[in-house]
Amino acid sequence: MTDSSKDLLLSSLYTFYENNNKYKSILKTIIEGKHVLSLRMIDWLVTRYAKNHNIIYWINDIDDNIYYNLPDNYSNEKYRKITLYLDYRAQLKSFKKFNFDAFRRHDRISFMINNEKQQIIETTIGQLNFFKWAFNNKIINYAIDNQKIIYENMSKFSYKKQFKNFNKNSLIPKQDIINTKCFVTFD
C-alpha cells in the first residue's frame, strides 16, 4: 500500500472515530485489557468461532439492535444481514492483514483518544480499521452478548489442542530389535 493510500485510510479512520467518541473509549479499554472482551477473544470470534458456527444476524441501524432471527416486519431499508465469517474474509481480502488486524502488528502510530485529558494509545492502522469494521457491524455487542459461549469454545479448543499434542509427544514409537549375523574379517 502506498503512502498516499495509507494517509487516505488513516484520514477516514480519524474521521470515523471523531464522529463516534464512544468507540474511542471502548477501543482504549479493549487494547489496554480492561474490557470484558480480550483481543484474543474478538479475534477468535471472527476467525474460528464464526467459521465453525456460521454466525448470521441482522442489524437495525436506526435502533442499534442486533436480531438473531429475521424480524417479521423485515424490509431491506431497515435491516442489514451480517454473515460474520464471510464479511470478515471479504474485509481481509480487501485490506490485507497489514491494514486489517485485531492485534498491533506492524508499524505503530499514536492515536489521540481524548484531547482534553491528553489520552493517547499506541495502535496500528490495521487495528483501527479492524475495530471500525467491528463497531459498524455490532461485533463487539455480539461478543458481549455471547461472551460465555465464545470463551467456553475457545477454552475447549485450546484444551483439545494441548491434549492432542501431549499424547503425540509423550509416546515413543515402538522400536524392534533385529538380530542379524555379521561376519568381520581382518586381512
Index terms:
187 residues, 3-stranded antiparallel beta sheet, extended, DUF7197
Structure description:
The protein is of the alpha+beta class and 187 residues long. α1 crosses α5, α3 (39-53) packs across α4 and α3 crosses α7. The chain has a three-stranded antiparallel sheet. 52% of the residues lie in helices and 13% in strands. The protein has seven helices and five strands. The mean pLDDT is 85. The protein has one domain (3-154). The chain is extended. The longest helix has 24 residues, at 147-170.
The overall average pLDDT, rounded, is 85
Our count of helices gives 7
- Count of DSSP strands: 5
Which residue ranges are poorly predicted, with pLDDT under 50 across at least 5 consecutive positions? Answer: none
Give the spatial strand order of the biggest sheet.
2-1-3
Largest sheet entry: 3 strands, antiparallel
Roughly what fraction of the amino acids lie in strands? 5-15%
- How would you spell out the order of helices and strands? HHHEEEHEEHHH
Structural class computed from helices and strand pairing:
alpha+beta
Measured between the Cα atoms of the first and last residue, the distance is 74 Å
Shape: extended
**Whole-angstrom Rg:** 24 Å
Helix content: 40-55%
Number of domains: 1
